[in-house]
Amino acid sequence: AEKMRALELNSWQLLRLLQAQLSGLPCEHVLVEENTGDTKSVVTECGGNIEQVFCCLYQNAAVLHRSWKFKRIFVSNIEDYKSAAAAYYVFLRTVSQWLARRMTDALYVREDHQISSLKKYAFSWHLDEIFLVGATLIHVISMGSSSMVEEEQYIWHFVLSTFYLLLIRKTAQTILADRTQSSVGLSMSLNGKISYLIISLFSVLVLGRILRAWHQGGINWVNLPDISKWLKLAGHEYVKRLWLLACLSVIILSIYVLTFLWTRRKMVLVVGFSFFIPGLMVLKYIISHEDDTSGSFTYSYGSTVSAQKIYRVLGALTVVAVVAVPWLIHIWTSKACSNGDICLSTSGSHDILKLPPLMEMRDSFYVIGWAYIFCWCLLQLLLQQPTNSLPVLLLLVQIYASMLHSFSAVPAHKHWIEVAALYQLGMAGHFALGNSNSLATIDVAGAFI
């Protein structure tokens, strides 16, 4: 009886699903008769279109089920039970096969649509791409004017801000298109992805505006107030606190980005510990940094020797990362493949990036790239003026947010767009540190360490 009840419930649920898939399904009278108990105890031969066949099969199963329940009151009849169960099985098998074919056809249609959309996207030009080409040409032309060269930092700030605003517009259009094409069940995942993409772009814009206000660059505006001048007026104690905060944040962020490779736990721990050592050395250097009675920082012989040691450690760390990381990843992958954990055969994988050699190359480039970025940030914290410590951190966060957006964008940006975005961040960050095209603004204090 329990098995028959389960068959009845499964059949009823599938019938409801069919009604949702087929709006013109003529089975309302079957459900009404089932609820009222007014059923005809006649098994008919099923024919006609697919909707009529579904309704007929369900009705036959329901009739045989009720006949078995009625006769069971007086005597147990195995044949009636088998007939009712067989009728339910026929209905369930027929409907399941039809739904599976319908779902497969829908997936093929959707994949074809996505492939055609990707091909169309790959060979089409968008507003952000046209803007980049036009801005590059204008920037090249501006090199012929000496006054434009002196104020180049404003050009890069304008290009960077406008480009990321165009990326926000493009992302919003893509999200709206995906929402109209996606089902209701995917709305929750889309909402999380929306916030992820938009926040990363807005963070780049907001941090870029802060960096722009940190130094008044150029020749004509260098005497105007900015954040760096306010910090110097506030006193060396506030500058030193920001210096420490920036160094700690750089260390934490650099170790955090490695958690994306948490499947390689041993490598993450080794590389993270290697990052942690020079970070602590820079922290010790900042804490022991002395200042004179005028409130400005001084460089003693001991601090110079400490800076030289840190410089050697950072140089050795980058070389070791380039040489050792690929070997470590290869050894780990070989062990995992021998244990049968993640090794995939080339014939069974449709995603070429999941093949072990390309996985090793991808992860190696990721770790080595972040090793270079981390060492560069620590070196800048060591050599730059203390007031430039926070801009170094903000520039690192901008790079991280831009990379996150590139990884998550669907459809993915063209490679030259991603490279151009990082190049613009680098140029705008170069001028945000107080540099300009005038020799008078070059800070050579760090070169004497």
Stretches with pLDDT under 50, minimum 5 residues? 35-39, 183-188, 344-354
Q: How many domain units?
A: 2
Radius of gyration over C-alpha positions, nearest whole angstrom? 34 Å
Structural class: mainly alpha
- Output mean pLDDT: 76
Percentage of residues in strands: under 5%
Helix proportion range: over 70%
Q: How are helices and strands ordered from N to C? A: HHHHHHHHHHHHHHH
User: Which geometry do the CA atoms define?
Assistant: elongated
What distance lies between the first and last C-alpha atoms, to the nearest angstrom? 88 Å
Sheet with the most strands?
none
* Total number of beta strands: 0
How many DSSP helices? 15
Question: How would you summarize what this structure contains?
Answer:
74% of the residues lie in helices and 0% in strands.
Secondary structure blueprint with pairings:
Layout lengths: L1 H20 L6 H9 L13 H23 L5 H45 L4 H16 L3 H5 L1 H30 L5 H26 L14 H8 L1 H21 L8 H23 L13 H39 L16 H28 L5 H20 L6 H18 L17
Description:
With 449 residues, the protein is mainly α. The protein is built from 15 helices and no strands. It has helices at residues 2-21, 28-36, 50-72, 78-122, 127-142, 146-150, 152-181, 187-212, 227-234, 236-256, 265-287, 301-339, 356-383, 389-408, 415-432. The termini are far apart.
